[in-house]
Amino acid sequence: MKRVVISLLVAATALPGFGQTAETRDQRGKRVVYEALAALGGDAYLHMNDRVESGRVYSIYRNQISGADRATIYTRYLAPVPEKVEVREREDFGPKEDSGFLFLEDSAWEFNFHGERPMDDDKYASYRYSTLRNVLYILRQRLNEPGIAYYSQGTDMFENRPVEIVDITDADNNTVTVYFDARSKLPVRQSFRKRNEKYHDFDTEVTLFGRYRDAGGGVMWPCNIRRERNGDKIYEMFADHVEVNRDLRDNLFSLPADGKVGSKKR
Description:
The chain is of the alpha+beta class. The protein has five helices and 13 strands.
């Protein structure tokens, strides 16, 4: 009997990880997040300067398509600043790209062939709130921000595939819950709660990421993105082309000097 016990102990010591301290939930959460960063391109992802995405976008209301168009989204990253959106983004719609939105560090604009006007404050605040909680933005801009914590919620199944679930919480206690594919390591789903100022309750915002492709230099980016609110689809994008590091210029993120500037919507 003693020989059997000794043999089992010897065999156990040969197993990977025997004698090592088990991961804490913080350690596991951080490991999963950094594995996702490596899967997205690692250093190449961290040094992605800009990105261009083009494809079809759909606005959805009560599970019915309320708008559809061709879109090109131009994004340029700026130096990270804790808890601030440091990115410039231009969204052009239509075959002539003559309407859309322009998001700058401290302002946002709507434009079309009639001219430009400042974006509604609530709409701009929603954009900033959602961007700060987008896992793809977090991994590029907020990874080492003071107060950021990663907490593993363990494993589960999502759409018939195993996932690792991690809560990412910032210094202000805002949390986004992210599902990472256990095989590819890439983020496939995220969710967070957002206060609804009109009804004084909370909305649950969900984003799904799919069909990752190499956007250049080893940077992986999802071509399919779907957003949901309280279980209802509100937006989908199917990109047919994504490319990074296009050396986007300042004039792309500037309003025309002779443009007509209107007032905000009331």
